Amino acid sequence: MPALQYGKTMHFAFSLLSAFLICTTVPSAAQTSSTSKPPELRALKDSVGIWDAKIEVWPQGLNAASITFTGVETVSAYGKHWIASDFDSVFSGRTNRIHSIVGYDLDERKLVGKVIDYGPYAARMTGEYDSKSKTVHWTTKVKDPSGKPIVQKTSITQKNANERVLVLSVPKKGTKDFIKFMEIRFTKRK
Fold this sequence. Notes:
Blueprint: H1 6-21, H2 39-44, E1 49-57, E2 67-78, E3 82-91, E4 94-105, E5 110-116, E6 123-130, E7 135-143, E8 149-160, E9 163-171, E10 178-188
Antiparallel strand pairs: 1-2, 1-10, 2-3, 3-4, 4-5, 5-6, 6-7, 7-8, 8-9, 9-10
């Protein structure tokens, strides 16, 4: 597996991390009018709370050593249609803070989100829910620090009411395939 550029890839991963973290068990999209409440809105409220995160990153690929650290995510309701997340972690002495807003877009009839960090570009996401696996699949469009567009894939599986697992995949160099870059295991605080 080819090596990944650590600095740029870590920046992308942290840029996207928060928005992926907050979506848990979201029922499949139903046809809704602009005045009705889709089931995704009710499910997003389950993410409200404080979550402890155990993060594992493979900057040089899955065959190389991983890096582990921890973080904390605080998720709050933001009106009736959105949730806001702040994800804080410390890696190599550097504090990382990522903010996101996620909700269900009544016009697009899908989950949408925007993520910001200390970089100059915001990440934009769209998500679909797989009810059989209780997994949200996100596609994220982001730019690297030089402005080059990148697409990332993230899956978040709800294990139970207090546990979820996020897997972030990045483009494999020279192909259209994606490779696992990061896994986060979340535990909800009581």
